[in-house]
Amino acid sequence: TRFPGVLRDNVWKSLNHLPKRFTLEPYRDAQGHLSLPIAKGKISFVRKVDFHGKVEINGVPYFIRRELEGQYVVATILTQQKKMVVKHEKEIIKTFSFPIKGHIINPVVVRKKKRT
Fold it and tell me: For the range 49-54, what are the long-range contacts, defined as Cβ-Cβ under 8 Å and sequence gap of 24 or more?
């Protein structure tokens, strides 16, 4: 958007926010380096399939399909299941194992369910 501050102000109340008491201190080691855990949930990436039929997620190439060259896919990491699901036009194309090191924690902020 041309005016990101205006957009932020318009949606501010509908966004999830960290609790006021939240701090990063429990995640720092003796040298002050951060070691953040991964929370249960989903992380999605939109990627364009290259001419080899691959996409890159976190620096790792994944072969999807050569027929999808130039098309966009959505790769969603399901942290609790330690897998990645790749979809094209809402259809699951591939599923990969996605190793995650360390302990997976509950989210700090719980999303409010929308009423329908």
Answer: 49/73
